[in-house]
Amino acid sequence: MTGVIEEVKKITVPDVLTIATEFSPKPGPRYSVNGKYSGQEFLEKILEKRFLAAESAKQTLTVNVDGLRGYPSSFIDGSFGELMRKVGRSRFEAVIRIKAEKNDFALDEINYILSTADKRRN
Q1: 105/59 Cα distance (integer angstroms)
Q2: Which tops the pLDDT comparison, 87 or 109?
Q3: How far apart are CA 37 and CA 72, in angstroms?
Q4: What residues have CB less than 8 Å from 39, skipping those under 6 apart?
Q5: 107: which residues sit within 8 A by CB, 6+ positions away?
Q6: Residue at 104 is within a domain
Q7: Is residue 71 part of a domain?
Q8: How far apart, in whole angstroms, are the C-alpha atoms of residue 60 and residue 8?
Q9: Is residue 67 part of a domain?
Q10: Is the pTM of this model over 0.90?
Q11: Per the structure, how many domains does the chain have?
Q12: Using DSSP, how many helices (H) and how many strands (E) does the chain show?
């Protein structure tokens, strides 16, 4: 049985994680029980492992949100917000970079949601 640390060590850290191609172009609800492509699923299957791999390699992880069909606040908070609550704002901000070249509104929306994510609990 391999633990999360062993799985993280096996990950090669690319500098960009593109949600639309590596997860889904249609982000879903906050929790997996509420539907497909949830923030919780993205966090548990991809984001947290890639975050830990980048952090241990002393690299940043750019998360590209271009190509998504919408930016549900429940998905953003259920993935990025929950990761921030887990690891703390300073660790999160030292590693994660959000990229949205095609939609400034998306970046503004995500930054707004994350601005208070560590102050609230679901």
Answers
A1: 27
A2: 87
A3: 11
A4: 27, 28, 29, 30, 31, 74, 75, 76, 77, 78, 79, 80, 81, 82
A5: 65, 98, 100
A6: yes
A7: yes
A8: 15
A9: yes
A10: no
A11: 1
A12: 8, 3
* Residues of the domain holding 21: 4-115
Joined tokens for residue 35: 């539907």
Residue that the structure tokens 């992880």 belong to:
61
What is the rounded distance in angstroms from the CA atom of residue 5 to the CA atom of residue 55?
Answer: 12
Whether residue 20 contacts residue 55, with contact meaning beta carbons closer than 8 Å, is answered with no
- Return the DSSP state at 27: -
Residue 122 covered by a domain: no
Distances 91 to 4, 51, 55, 72, 95 between C-alpha atoms, Å = 18, 10, 8, 24, 7
Under DSSP, is residue 96 helix (H, G, I), strand (E, B) or coil? strand
Tokens of 62: 């750019």
Q: In what order do the strands lie in the sheet with 96-99?
A: 16-18, 61-64, 96-99
Residue that has been written with the tokens 């949830």 in this structure: 38
Residue pLDDT, tens place only, 33-65: 999 999 999 999 999 999 999 999 999 999 999
